[in-house]
Amino acid sequence: MEKEYLMIPGPTPIPHEISQSMGSSIINHRGPKFKELLEEVTANLKKVYETESEMFVLTASGTGAMEAGIVNFISPGERVLALTNGAFGDRLENIALTYGVEIESVSSEWGSPFDYEEIEEKLANDKSHEIKAILVVHNESSTGLMNDIEKISKLRRGHPALLIVDTISSMGAVHLPVDEWEIDVCLTGSQKALYLPPGLSFISVNSRAMKAMDNCTMGKFYFSLKKAREFSEKGQTPFTPAIPQVMALKDSLNMLLQAGKQYNFERHYRMMKATRSAVEAIGLELFVKDLKHASRTVTAVKKPPEIEVSKLRSLMRGKYGVEIAGGQAKLSQDIFRIGHLGAITEMDVITAISALEMSLLELGYNLQLGTAVSKAQEIVMQK
Amino acid sequence: MEKEYLMIPGPTPIPHEISQSMGSSIINHRGPKFKELLEEVTANLKKVYETESEMFVLTASGTGAMEAGIVNFISPGERVLALTNGAFGDRLENIALTYGVEIESVSSEWGSPFDYEEIEEKLANDKSHEIKAILVVHNESSTGLMNDIEKISKLRRGHPALLIVDTISSMGAVHLPVDEWEIDVCLTGSQKALYLPPGLSFISVNSRAMKAMDNCTMGKFYFSLKKAREFSEKGQTPFTPAIPQVMALKDSLNMLLQAGKQYNFERHYRMMKATRSAVEAIGLELFVKDLKHASRTVTAVKKPPEIEVSKLRSLMRGKYGVEIAGGQAKLSQDIFRIGHLGAITEMDVITAISALEMSLLELGYNLQLGTAVSKAQEIVMQK
To answer: In this predicted model, what pLDDT tens digit does every residue of A108-156 receive, in sequence order?
Structure first.
């Protein structure tokens, strides 16, 4: 008998209650029951987002919502400011490029915060307002870095560019008030901090973005939010939705809102702190050093020279049932990543740290068992 | 205590075993277990399709696969021959139009078969082979008409146009040998005849279509099958898949293949015959009169003058728990549709016919209770 601990930055494990909702019987997506369901989940999603914007449910993983976040608001040949410091920032930029959008970019090293002054300058220099939107990922799960959306929003004041933010791996886990921060388009996925399996994504569109949407000439069909808006007025989605996930979403949002958003933010903060303190205690190096920029949902750790990431992951998986992630793209051999979000608990973090200690020791890394675990415990105890 | 009978042309009810698979715990979509899972379902999907083509699993409903079936094979400005005689044929054409494809079309009245000679002529007249693809829906669930793909494939011989077929509401329910009929691109959805909830769609691409794909200049990201091919070599999907549906797909395909495809074809044939005989027995008029063109998975029935479709549906749903579909688009007030596919059984058809009889009688339609039911029974008994 082995228990499995899925400790990657999504998809996350799901609570038993949600497993059961996923097995619900199928209903007509054009009938009154589905209408009621869609209206309830939409209203509750708005509570999570803290927004009065329109909210749409897409049957696609997060990347589908990223595509929707671009093709509905930018026309071919228009210019955007793409902020990139990781794999998902690159993905947003690549989607825009694919659809013939002109790119201006502010990049920093993967794992390093943006030069916010450079962003400010780019916007200030754009006197003729050619930049139609800023594309940015809130939480770069590829590196464990969290970008400062509130600051970017403030820098943008006075410039009409839309602020289009990917919060796929952070929404629900961290304070992210969409309206207060004036995020025009905000998208997320189901399989991260919302206790749900993959299969759905969500996108909010405020009235400024709606105007851009009405004028957008980009071709799109499956991801057309105009169609989504038309059908949402009838309590429907334009195309058959992933009904089990929508049913489970009702329960997962109730669970999240009943526990309280603040409770959840604090829980994620402690999971981050516990993970960071633990790995530092055994001499490992954090990929994002400054706590201020650290992701609340995933921690990336530099591998010690004597350890191979793939061997570490295999041992943790095979012997202890703990699945962590490697690095992505150019970082694949350099870091490993521990996800601590959604239905992952503080006790799961302790478990994962314990498996990490045992596996590192077995692979020849010098450590005293319990050193990292006890640091994680110290943080978890504070709750 | 009420039991619900979902008798629409998809989404369909799902067997209890599949409900349970839908609640499976979530696994890493970049790990070895998922690789094994994806390889198994892909191999079994090919058995259902009777094809050696490449097969891709998309996290999107059928319309996403329709979009993938166009944007990966046709470049902007290229010409296609769109065959339309229902809402889904129109949708294929609209997707192509949206993406800047030139349309030549052969249309017939909704519910009427194509003029196959006209198709033959169009292809014969296209000496310079400007038509790059034929877009056609196999089973028009909007009207209950099944188009003759084998015939279209034969007409196409000698012309290099790709044959791109939407089999969303028929694959699994009816003989549809993809390779034998030389279908280059064949797409379907999870929520129709495959015993699964919505959330996934599947698309096969043969070597001829692969060549077109490699030369296609249309912009696409989420629906890029080049990316899907690249990742499928690693046993992965490019973006996080709807894992519960993929897990359930393993079980549903095993269920389908173990029962036997032929068994399933015959079962669907009987459900169609039972439904058609039943409604005719009480003087209702079939929307598609000729059995040869009748859909195996959905039967459309003209409403009697004295009956309103919405009242009939409400009564059947509210009093007997039987959910049937109305018409789509321009047919919404003229027909009702009974779905008989996937996990819907022959006994469910009898149940639905019985609810139809009782509801029609209550709404003032003149009939003798049992007349339609007994006709359905006669067919079902033949198994």
So the answer is: 999 999 999 999 999 999 999 999 999 999 999 999 999 999 999 999 9
Peptide bond into A13 cis (omega under 30): no
Q: Tokens at residue B9, please? A: 């042309």
Residue numbers in A near B336 (CB within 8 A)? none
Domain boundaries defined on chain A:
5-11+260-381, 17-258
Please give the Cα distance from A340 to A268 (Å, whole number).
7
Asked if the domains at A5-11+260-381 and A17-258 fall in one CATH topology, the answer is no
Residue B2 pLDDT > 90: no
The residues near B164 (Cβ < 8 Å, ≥ 6 apart) are B69, B70, B73, B133, B134, B135, B136, B183, B184, B185, B186, B187, B209
Q: For residues B145 and A267, give the distance between their C-alpha atoms in angstroms, rounded to a whole number.
A: 55
pLDDT mean over A182-190: 98
Is residue A2 predicted with pLDDT exceeding 90? no
Mean predicted lDDT score pLDDT of chain B: 97
Q: What is the mean pLDDT of residues A329-343?
A: 95
Mean pLDDT calculated for residue range A186-214: 98
Spell out the residues 6+ positions from residue A290 whose beta carbon is closer than 8 angstroms to its own: A113
Task: For residue A184, give how far its alpha carbon lies from the nearest alpha carbon of chain B (Å).
Answer: 22
**Considering CB atoms only, which of A27, A243, A323 is closest to B31?**
A323
CA distance B13 to B4: 9
Stated as kind and residue range, the H or E segment containing A301 is strand A298-302
CATH code that applies to domain B16-258: 3.40.640.10
> pLDDT tier at B243 (50, 70, 90 boundaries)?
very high
Query: Computed over its alpha carbons, how large is the radius of gyration of chain B?
Result: 21
A376 contacts A266 by C-beta, under 8 angstroms: no
CB within 8 A of A352, min separation 6: which ones?
A: A5, A7, A275, A316, A322, A324, A338
A-B contacts at Cβ under 8 angstroms: 168
Q: 3-state DSSP call for residue B287?
A: coil
Of A96, A87, A86, residue with least CA distance to A135: A96
| Contacts with A19 from chain B: Cβ below 8 Å | 23-25
Distance CA B156, CA A324 (A): 52
pLDDT level of residue B1 (50, 70, 90 thresholds): confident
Q: Which of B12, B23, B241 sits opposite A22 (nearest CB)?
A: B23
**A321 vs B contacts (CB less than 8 Å):** none
Quick one: fold of B5-11+260-381?
Aspartate Aminotransferase, domain 1 (3.90.1150)
Kindly list the residues from chain B whose CB atom is less than 8 angstroms away from the CB atom of residue A98: 219-221
Q: What are phi and psi of A25, to 5 degrees?
A: -75, 155
Among B91, B69, B54, which Cα is nearest to B224's? B69
Cβ(A153)–Cβ(A182) under 8 Å?
yes
Whole-angstrom Cα distance, residue B203 to residue B62? 10
Output the CA–CA distances (angstroms, integers) from residue B341 to A12, A69, B168, B236, B254, in the order listed: 34, 36, 12, 30, 17
Question: What would the pLDDT profile of A81-94 be if each residue is shown by its tens digit?
Answer: 999 999 999 999 99
* Whether B242 and A197 lie within 8 Å, measured CB to CB: yes
Chain A residues in contact with B142 by the CB 8 A cut-off are none
CA angle at residue A324 from A319 to A328, to 5 degrees? 135
Residues B313-321, mean pLDDT to the nearest whole number: 97
Distance, in Å, from the CA atom of A375 to the CA atom of A184, rounded to the nearest integer, reads 40
Between chains, do A222 and B223 touch, taking CB under 8 Å as contact?
A: yes
* CB-CB under 8 Å, B26 with A61: no
Q: Do B244 and A62 touch (CB under 8 A)?
A: no
Pick the CATH number of A17-258 from 3.40.640.10, 2.30.30.40, 3.10.180.10, 3.40.50.150: 3.40.640.10
CA B6 to chain centre: 16
